[in-house]
Amino acid sequence: MKIIFWNIRGIGNNESRIALRDMYHSNTPSLVFIAEPMVMYDSIPNWFWNNIRVTKYCVNTREPLIPNLWAVWGSEVDFTVTFVEAKIPLKLFLNDKQTLVLKLRL
Prior knowledge:
CATH topology: Deoxyribonuclease I, Chain A
Number of strands: 7
Distance between the termini: 24 Å
CATH class: Alpha Beta
Order of helices and strands: EHEHEEEEE
Oligomer: single chain
Strand content: 25-35%
Number of domains: 1
Helix content: 10-25%
CATH architecture: 4-Layer Sandwich
Number of helices: 2
Largest sheet: 4 strands, mixed
């Protein structure tokens, strides 16, 4: 299983999306964390996510600010990703078993 964490510093532009697509195709990660996307998840077209086989996602909540951490993955793995608090402790469950806990500060 490959997990990639990328501080992309903005995914709303074509250059960042092309770089993310190329990274997906060359590394075939199971799970990718995207930090500082600087846009809402829904602003990225579905065709883009379909192209890199992303079918599931989770974003942290920072009301009233936009989310600053996304987790994206495909249907080939059974992840449950939970962002718990504003400081972004992260729990990752694989097949209903907690397998990873991270505390990230952005």
